[in-house]
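Readers outside the structure-tokenisation community will struggle with the description of the input data as it stands. For illustration, here is how one protein appears when written out as sequence plus structure tokens:
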Amino acid sequence: MKIGYFRTESELAYQDVIEGNLLTQVDRTVDLLCTKYSRAAISYEGIYRRETLPTPVEALREAVLNAVAHRDYAHSAPIQIRVYDHRIALWNPGSLPLDWTLDKLVGTHASVPHNPAIANALFRAGMVEAWGRGIGNIVSVCGSAGMVEPQWMLEPGGLRLEFLFTPVNHGTSDQGTPHGIPSGDRREPESQPESQPESQPESQPESQPESLMDRVLRQLASGPMSKVDLSRGLGQKTVSGQLNKVIRLLLADGNIGYTIPEKPRSRLQMYRLTDKGLGAVRQRCNMGCQPGGNPMKLQMDLRVRQRPRRHQAQASLTSLFQRFPSITNKLGKRIHPVAQLQPLTQPRDLPGPYGPPLIGHLFQLSSERSHLTLERWAERYGPLFQIRLGRSRLVVVSDHGAIQRILEQRPQSFRRNRVIEDRFTELGIDGLFTAEGEDWRRQRRTVVAALGGTRLAGFFPRLKATTARLQRRWEAAGKQPVDVCHDLTRFTVDVTMQLAFGIDPNTLETPGPVIQQHLEKIGPGLQRRFFTLFPYWRLVRLPPDRALDRAVKELEREVEAVVRATREHMAAHPGHGPTNFLEAMLVIAEREGSTLTSAELLAHTSQLLLAGEDTTSYTVSWIVHYFSRFPEAFLRVRREVDDLIAPAAALDELEQANRLPFLDAFCNEVMRLKPAAPHMALEALEDTEMLGCRLPKGTKLFVLLRYAATREEHFAGGDRFDPERWLPRPTGNGKQPHNTQAFVPFGAGPRICPGRNLAMLEIRTVLAMLCRNFDLEPVNPGREVREKMAVVMRPDQLHVRLKRRSLDQQDPLKNGDPAPVDPAPTALLI
């Protein structure tokens, strides 16, 4: 969305571009319209001041929500909101429903959203009612405020809505204060009297024009920005020389700093407020120097934007009191706002569990169930608490809003914990997973190219062949229990090596020691080394350390053989470009001036192999476990697969993988409850504030990714397994929490998993084959399958019996079962 304040039709004073998810855009747009682009009309009742916005906030909110739900997103133009002295014009790209007129739009009508999925999301978020009452509500609210009825105009390419401020209701008040003039217009209105009335409080500060330096500082208060972003926020088309001068002065004074200080001329460079600059902005807020602004609201944005809900409620209430101080309670007594905000908390002052001196919580977190311990503590100590590992203090974050901010600000503001990087590096298997900065950006481009959609389409026939091998392996098992994780790890190793390296190791049909057996030993060894007081293995090797070293050396030997074979193949075909990740890396390594060494090449390929086999195989294993726990849901998935691919034994075409909605819903629900990565270890690259706590640069964090997805405020019945929650529900079934942003099985932000498309294709292909060809029988029905952390979370000792299914047997769900879901293409996770 774009908002601009116009002095005339052609003279733009300043503007804002609102980005982010749709819910955030709606909140931010309405907030800016009320606090930055509108000046409230001021009147007095006795000694109390009363403020009235030129357009009721309810009408603005309804108009923005309607624009979001009915916009034509195929149109490149954004929703545009023009603010003038006496009107607000909102233009939305789109058209009316077929056979509709403006009269029908303004009259009583049913809800016919242009984008049903978006309207459903807004309904589930509690922002709309889905009764078609939005237009009527706008007219009613404006009429109650004494405004002229809003005007709708159908134009080529879009629909325009205008709110008019009439001189009768938004002219000059009894006190002579101008109404309906946006705060961004710094000119004094001509109609303002030369002297203020006697009833005007003498202590009211005089509005002064805001300097460019102050405006830059205020822009950066909302987060890091580039020069281009700053110039756009200031209403400039290009970066002016004056803006460059102001930025240089602010840098010299220490009010702002670089987000990438080691590379001042980086194209990714952004500017951020320092502690000194933050103090300057706060000081101006307290002095009331921001003309037409809302000092208390900016303080709330700076200090408690990321606090828990109870603090946000207090902040909102305080802001409300500041804007409308005449609010009274039922007894008629004045309700006084909170006078001052509480000082920021330091990490050492956060709550947390007791830990012995020197050791801290090391022994409580060194086990394979450390993630469960952290989630249990989050339940008790809140969304932000502290723990100690020896002398190191860590902050644990479980609040969804704070986690979303962290993921979005990687890698410039947060990075992976250096301890994890060190442990991988000393084993010689550091790569994209642990890379940071420019190394990460360069590697990610290569990996994304290797795992892109075009590559997957050409790779699907080989994936089918590998799936057939897995089917034959399970058929050969007969009545013997199958170690699901073991077999699926072999499968994912074969798939990853074929796609990324162009080599088919066929571990599914190879007897004896294979590369997969070495990979299985690395994860537990790394997990053990993450939670140690000091790296003792550098002085003395214990038996587990020697086993880990042997596994890494064997893996290096296997990878060296693959690299050698790839080099020979490339030498024999010199005219062909790289066809996979390994060949692309070899081209980089052999390029003149390249700094990529052979050791680094081995490290990158080893880590890609390690990351590709664990996460996918363990995710499929958890889904198989839930198949055995919920047989009715398993039979429903089977029927969906049968209807799609019968008489074939497995998926035959790539597009079939996107036509299994209930299977996708089942997978989503399992990954919500059993994600491969339930938490993440990071550290701050700069001083930051989070949930009212000041986190200095270098603060180590544990981010609990699964915790929010199991909470009632994000998913109704958060601890209950319910695949139905991921399917469209009939209108009128009531709204229940379903916050998909709290569901991050592949991460989020710039460092979202690049292999998620491949992972979901593997998952759907294997599960379709399993449902079509086998019946499941748990080996120990009463035994709980426990979660076990070994870098990623896996099911411990998951064994099932896979009985060959007779494809002509009657499906017990064929009679009396709910109607099948429409197998429309779905992409819930891709």
